[in-house]
Amino acid sequence: SELMKVPETEIIRTLFFKGMAVNITQTLDVDTIEMIARDFDMTVETPSTQSAAIKTTEMIDVSDWESLQRRPPVVTIMGHVDHGKTTLLDSIRKTKVAQGEAGGITQHIGAYHVDVEHNGKPEQIVFLDTPGHEAFTAMRARGARVTDIAVLVVAADDGVQPQTKEAISHARAAEVPIVVAINKVDKPSANPDRIKQELTEQGLVAEDWGGETIMVPVSALRGENLDNLLEMILLVAEVEELVANPDRLAKGTVIEANLDRTKGPVATLLVQNGTLRVGNSIVAGSVFGKIRAMIDDRGQKVEAATPSFAVEILGLSDVPAAGDEFDVYESEKEARSIADQRAIEQRNTRLQQALSSRRVSLSTLSIQAQEGQLKELNLILKADVQGSVEAILGALKQLPQNEVQIRVLLASPGEITETDVDLAAASGAVVVGFNTTLASGARASADREGVDIRDYNIIYKLLDDIQGAMEGLLDPEE
Ligand code: GDP
Q: Where in the cell is it found (predicted)?
C-alpha cells in the first residue's frame, strides 16, 4: 500500500471481490502482489537475486527487499529408522563443534550450528537436531516452514525403505531440495550403487548418473567424508539463494518448548528474519514474553541471534507449541495485547471445534462448561458389582451441581457393551467404567460413533475427572 500509494482498504476490497479474504497484517505472495499491481496498472520489479527468497518464505516481505543478506541454510536430517540419522548428527557435531570449543560443552536446544570453510570463506550450517520426519511433518502441518535443505540418510547395506520413501515425499511436498547421504559405506555389505539404483526408481538420480541429486557416500560412525557432505550442503544452499533482513525486528518459528522446573517456560526459537535480542517483547503463538536471557547451542549466553540461528530463550509467560510463529514487537504493551487477542481467538476456535465435532468426550464437555454452555452432563455407568454402582452413584450425588447437573442415564453392574455405546451416542453421554471390561465390539463401535469411554479403578480419580469436567478444568488433551 505504501509503495503503490493506494489505501490498504482499497487493496483488501480488490482482493475481496476476487474471492480472497485477507487482513491488513497478512503477507501476500508474489503472484498475488503482481495481480494487484496489474489491477492498478503498475508493474512489480523483483531483482532476480531476491525472487528466490520471496518465493521460498512467508517470513520476508516487501519492506525487507532493500536489506536482504545471505543467511546460513537450515538443514533437517531424515531417513529410515536405524539408517544412522542420530549417529550422523552426533558425529557432525562432534567433529565440527566440540573441537576447539572451550570445554567442548554442548547444550541440547533442538538445533545446532557448525562452522565450515567453503571456497576459502568461513560459513555456517544450522542443523535441526530432532531427527526423523515426524518433527518436520508436525511443523509443516502447522504451516511452519523451517527447513531449507533435507539430508536423506540411506544405509548402504539396507537400501530404500518405507520411511525413506516417506521422507522423499515430505521433502518434495515442502519443495525442499534433497541431499542424499549414503551411509554405512564402511560395512563390507555396503553397496552404494544399489542405493543409487533404488533411489533412481524414486525419481532421485545421482549426478554421476546424469541426474541432479547430490549423493555423498559417508560413514557416520567413523566420521568419514562428512566434510564433503557439508561442502555439498553449502553448494545446494548457494543455489537456493537463502536470504533474510537482519536489520529488523525478529520473526521465526518455535522449534522446541517445555516447562523447566527451575527456569520456567523455555523455548528454542529459530530466527528466520530480523535479529532477536535480549529485552525484546515477543509473541510466540499466543504467549507473551520479554526475553530475559538467550543461550546458544554451545551453552553460551548471547545478546543477539541473527537469521537462521536458533537460541533458547527465557522470559515467556507460558509454553508455546513447536511450530508456532513468533514475532517481536516494538512495545511491550502492543505485544501483550496481541498475545491476549490470539489467546481469545485460539479458545474460540477450540470451542468451535469442540461444538462442531460429533464426539462427546469429557474434555469437550469440559470446554463447554468453561464457556458456561454446559447444563447437563450425561453419564452411563458400568461397574464390577452392584455395590460399586451404588457407592459411585452416592458419591456423584455429593458433587456440587448448581452450574452443571449430572444425569445418569444408566447405571448397572457388568461389562460395557455395544448397546451402552449406542445409548451414549444417541444421547450425548460419556461411558464411565469402574473395574470392568469392554465386551467385544464395544471399542470399535465407540470409535465409530465417537463415544468417549473412560475406565477407572480408583473411585476418587473417577470423581475427580467428572468434577473437573463440570468445572471446565479438565485438561483438553485428555
Ligand atoms: P537412526 O535410527 O536413523 O537415528 O539410526 P542411528 O544413528 O541410531 O544408527 C543405527 C545403528 O547404525 C547404530 O547401531 C549405529 O551405530 C549404526 N550406524 C550408524 N551409522 C553407521 C555407519 O556409518 N557405519 C556403521 N557400520 N554403522 C553405523
A: Cytoplasm
The answer to whether 96 is a known ligand-binding residue is no
Report the separation in Å between the CA atom of 84 and the middle of ligand 1, taken as the mean of its atom positions. 4
Is residue 339's pLDDT more than 60? yes
Of 327, 300, 309, nearest to 74 by C-alpha is 309
Alpha carbon distance 376, 208 (integer Å): 69
Helix (H) or strand (E) holding 259: strand 251-260
Write down the ipTM of this complex: 0.99
Atom 22, ligand 1: which residue's CA is nearest?
184
Tell whether 213 is in a known binding site.
Answer: no
- What is the distance in A from the centroid of ligand 1 to the CA of 405? 58
Alpha-carbon Rg for the chain in angstroms = 27
Residues 253 and 323 sit within 8 Å (Cβ to Cβ): yes
For the chain, give the mean pLDDT.
Answer: 87
pLDDT tens profile 99-128: 555 445 567 888 999 999 888 889 999 999
Grid-cell match 485460539, residue found: 346
What mean pLDDT do residues 154-181 have? 90
Distance between CA atoms of residues 67 and 51, nearest Å: 14
